[in-house]
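Suppose you are handed only two things: the residues of a chain and a line of SMILES describing flavin-adenine dinucleotide. What would the bound structure be? This form records exactly that question and the answer produced for it, so the two can be stored side by side and reused later without any lookup.

QUESTION INPUTS
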Amino acid sequence: MGKDKRVYDFIIAGGGPTGSTSAIYLRRKGYNVLVLEREYFPRQHVGESLLPFCFPLFQELGVLDDMKKRFVRKPGARFTNHDGTKSSTWCFRNIIQDESYLSFHVVRADFDKLLLDKAKSEGATVQEGSKVTEVNLDNPEEVAVKATCEDQEYDYRARFFIDATGQDTFLARRLGDKKSYQELDRIAFLTHWKGAKYTQGIDVGLLQICYLPPHKSGWFGIQPVGKDRLSVGLIISRKYLKEQKEKFKKSGHEDDWQMQLYLQEVREAPLTKDILEQAHIAQPLIAVSDYSYYAERTFGSNFAMLGDSGKFLDPIFASGVYLGMNSSKMFADALDVMMKSGTTEGLQAMTDAKKHIDGAYNLVEKFVNIYYDPTSFNLAELSSTSESNYQGYETAFSLVHYLLAGDFFNNYERYSEFLDMLRNPKQFSRWKNLVIDRPNLHEKTCGTTFEAIFGEIDDNIVRITSINKENA
Ligand SMILES: Cc1cc2nc3c(=O)[nH]c(=O)nc-3n(C[C@H](O)[C@H](O)[C@H](O)COP(=O)(O)OP(=O)(O)OC[C@H]3O[C@@H](n4cnc5c(N)ncnc54)[C@H](O)[C@@H]3O)c2cc1C
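ANSWER OUTPUT
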């Protein structure tokens, strides 16, 4: 029998950005909140490039000033095709006039700790090193939760359980409700490098997305997370991974085939080959597999799955943290209705919030599917600049910028129609013809300086400790 039968309004499993954001908003509404986090923070994690649309959340949560001191700024994204001959740069300042046009690249160990500490300071009870092992949802208006901490089992009760366990998908797996997106079956490897050459737009903070050749069906995501700390993530299809795994194992790399594969790809892609020639790896390789999935039923009268715990698509548009945090904010309002007005009203409010959350996720899903469709548009081959001779197309350009900046929740219906238009080969080729091969197609900057991007940060405060490693 476990110890400690305390009763809370909300128990949140997982203290990543989704769990911490839920905890802060629920605390501000006056509820007793317990966060059970399996790891001790800081712990490293993937998901380092954040979208400008996160900015108001950071401001509201009270972490923006700290973020400005700690993290590299991100003015936009640059897409390059697989042989490095074509690229396009998308600058957020083309559509955003206030300071949020400079977003962030974060070290997740630091960022997640900042948010979790904030949840503590707002009065949430946070127990690190506590792994949730069981939840009983039989009583529609209460939950019983078991967690282990340092080999001891503890029992807790609450009115409502929030699953924010990320890719562990604690509840979806227990409810037998986890489904995969077969068409997004990819694997990711990521690590940090020191001694990399800061050129090609990295020196001015751009997120770099480099397409791999079509048979690998993947890309590199490269972002500076310190003055001398470059994060380089590799995404490839499972099919390609299997072929390569076999090849490396046959040649004697039983134990280190993942690293060998990662290094092979780094050496083959023109951009990574150039910038990492003199660099060395600064932390263990993280491998993330099985990451495109969803759960059918993500909430009920006593539970909700938020952030990655209920759905994850693909990291190409760096959308995960924002989707998780904004969904948490929206759900906190719905849960407040439930606590104040009762289960029926609460379920209605959750249904309403979920409609918008689904709208945002579906929009990202459409964007992701278009990105991977070899017959559809290639972002490396489009210029982001707007000039007078394609005035009529400025709206379309703005829309792509807005999508890349994270405008998923406000206008998803409109954007969805726009993406359908781009899928029509005739309309797309008309749109594309007006914009490719412009003189500034190869621009590698959004006009920001090294000082503006890296000025305030100090690499020495980067905290890297434990790594969650999954088997690919
Ligand atoms: C390769 C890759 C690159 C990505 N790049 C980006 C990017 O650039 N930008 C972006 O916004 N997103 C990116 N993402 C997505 C991003 O990582 C996630 O969307 C984001 O971390 C989700 O936050 P979360 O709080 O829902 O889950 P997590 O951040 O995963 O947090 C979940 C927490 O729950 C804890 N936990 C798990 N099980 C239990 C348990 N049983 N009991 C208690 N605690 C538990 C874990 O320890 C963890 O701390 C990327 C994802 C991948 C795979």
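WHAT STANDS OUT: The CA atoms of residues 194 and 228 lie 6 Å apart. Confidence is low (pLDDT under 50) at residues 384-392, 436-441, 464-472.
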